[in-house]
Structures are given as structure tokens and as C-alpha cells.
Amino acid sequence: MLRHGLTDKKLSRGQAAALLVIAALLWSSAGILIKLIPWHPLAIAGGRSAIAAAIFAAAIGRPRWNGSPAQWGAALAYACTVTTLVAATKLTTAATAILLQYTAPIYVALFSAWFLQERTTSADWLTVAVVMGGMVLFFLDSLTPGKALGNLCGILSGVSFGAMALFLRKQKDGSPLESVLCGNLLTFLVALPFLLQQPALDTAGWLALLALGVFQLGIPYLLFCLAVKHVSALDAILIPVIEPILNPVWVMLFYAEVPGPKTIAGGLLVLGAVTIRSLLNERRQAQKTGTAA
Question: For the chain, what is the radius of gyration of the CA atoms?
């Protein structure tokens, strides 16, 4: 079982960061896949989570559920995150949905010191500020007027994504996998009435739903749970910030939602800020290791 292998393995920060990058690459397929399925947003979220729950159940084997506030908090935040992101993607543009979700670093930076005793440095705040500046550029092109409900769902997804990272990181000495398993089951149960009312999908729709459950949700969240035990909560949110850059790119290529020049400039700004911060952190860790040796 995965629990007796990768979950107990000590990862370096670089290895954990690599897992987060892979997770972000897989997450970024959400926009194009969701738009290929002609279902109610809650039905898509429920079907996707049912598949992801099966993957987590197979990976975990026998769950260790202690009912702690951190486990329940992460499960509820996860369910809210995956549901509101699907709704936002359906109700507004993919770019707007994912970019609103990635306001999450603000909430993590604000609450990490209090909730996790993880100090937020001036460099961290500068990175968050630059990332948010890049998001503003995105919004100048992408924030869709007249789609208030979709935008609200995107904002809620950002709040819950930040809360999920904090609650999962709170379980760094335990196993955060159970929270995501429970979150997927909760999402499926809430969405079940909507699932039962949806029309049958064609082959392309079923393939898109399967890809969402396996490659866009199940596998990347396994990687995220493994990585979050070995990086700070802010790292866990900032490193995958390449997702909002790639998500609208895939939609542009396959669904003809074309981002404007400000969106592209904002994406480069976000990617540059996160890359520089990651390189500086790696250099700082290497210097500490060399000094200790």
C-alpha cells in the first residue's frame, strides 16, 4: 500500500517541490476537461470525486481516521474547493475561475504564523504581493463582468483552497490522505441528487470525466498530500501557482478562450516571482546544510 511506502518516506524540499509542480501540471487540465462535460457543475464535481475517492481508497488501504479538527477541517475545505472551482469554471471563464482560486496565498500568509507557527518572512510577503500583482493583470483581461455567481464561486474556492492547505499542513506528523478521501466522499454525497438527474454522456464525455477523476484530481492530490508534509503551507500554495498560467493556455488551445496580453504578462510575472523565491529558498537551505556540515 502507498501508506507503507511513499507516505513514510522523508523527502527533501526540492523533491517535495517537484511533486507540487507535477500536481499543478495535472491540475491545470481542469478547465478544458470540465468544459467538455455537458452536466450541472455539482454533478461533474461529484462524478470526478467518486473516481478520485476510489483511487485514494486503493492507495490508503485501511484509513486512519482520528476525527481531529484538522482532519475534518481539511476534508470540508477540500470538498468546498473542488466543488466551487467546477462551478466557477462552468459559470465564468476558466482563466477567471482558476485565478480567483489562487488568491489562496494571501490567506495562507495571513494565518500561517497563528495556525501553524510557520513564520512568514518579508521575502514571502514580497512574493505574495508580486503574485497578486500578476493576478490583477490577469483580471484586467479575464475577470468576466455580468457573471457574478461564477466569480463568487471562484472567490470561495480561493478561501477554501487556502484553508485546505493550512489544515493538511497541520497534519504534517500524521497522514493527510484520509482528509482528502473524506472530502471526495462528501463531495460525491452532496452531488448525488444532481448526478441522478444528468443525461448519459457520450464517449468523449465519459473519457473527460475519467481523466478528471484520475489524472486531474486523484493522482495530483496524492502528490500534494505527500509534498505538504515536507514544505511550508505557503510553499504548498505558491509553488503550484503555475496552474493558473497553464489552465487558460489549454482552454485557449482546445476551446478558443483566448487570453489577452495582460493575462500573458501577469502569468510571466507570477511565474518569475515564484521561481525566484524557490531558487532563493533552495540556496538558503543549501547554505544551512553546508554550515551544519
Answer: 18
Distances (CA, A) of 60 to 54, 56, 173, 178, 274: 10, 6, 16, 8, 32
Query: Residue 65 CB: number of other CB atoms within 10 A?
Result: 14
Calpha distance 269→276 (Å, rounded): 11
Helices (H), the chain: 13-27, 30-35, 41-60, 69-91, 94-101, 104-116, 122-142, 148-169, 177-195, 203-211, 219-228, 233-238, 243-255, 261-292
The one-letter code for the residue type at 92 is T
Length of the chain equals 293
Residue 202 corresponds to which cell in the numbers above? 457520450
Task: Retrieve residue 246's grid coordinates.
Answer: 497553464
Q: Are 208 and 83 in contact (CB under 8 A)?
A: no
Report pLDDT digits (tens) over 255-284. 666 666 776 777 677 767 777 776 666 666
Residues 109 and 125 sit within 8 Å (Cβ to Cβ): yes
On whether the CB atoms of residues 259 and 253 are closer than 8 A, the answer is no
Percent of the chain with pLDDT over 70: 80
Q: Is the pLDDT of residue 175 over 60?
A: yes
Which residue type occupies 221?
A: Y
Is the pTM for the entire model greater than 0.85? Answer: no
Q: Tell me: the pLDDT tens digits for 36-81?
A: 899 998 999 999 999 999 999 998 888 888 889 999 999 999 999 9
Q: Please state the φ and ψ torsions of residue 228, each to the nearest 5 degrees.
A: -65, -20
Query: Angle, nearest 10°, between helix axes 219-228 and 177-195?
Result: 150
Rounded-to-integer distance, Cα 256 and Cα 249, Å: 10
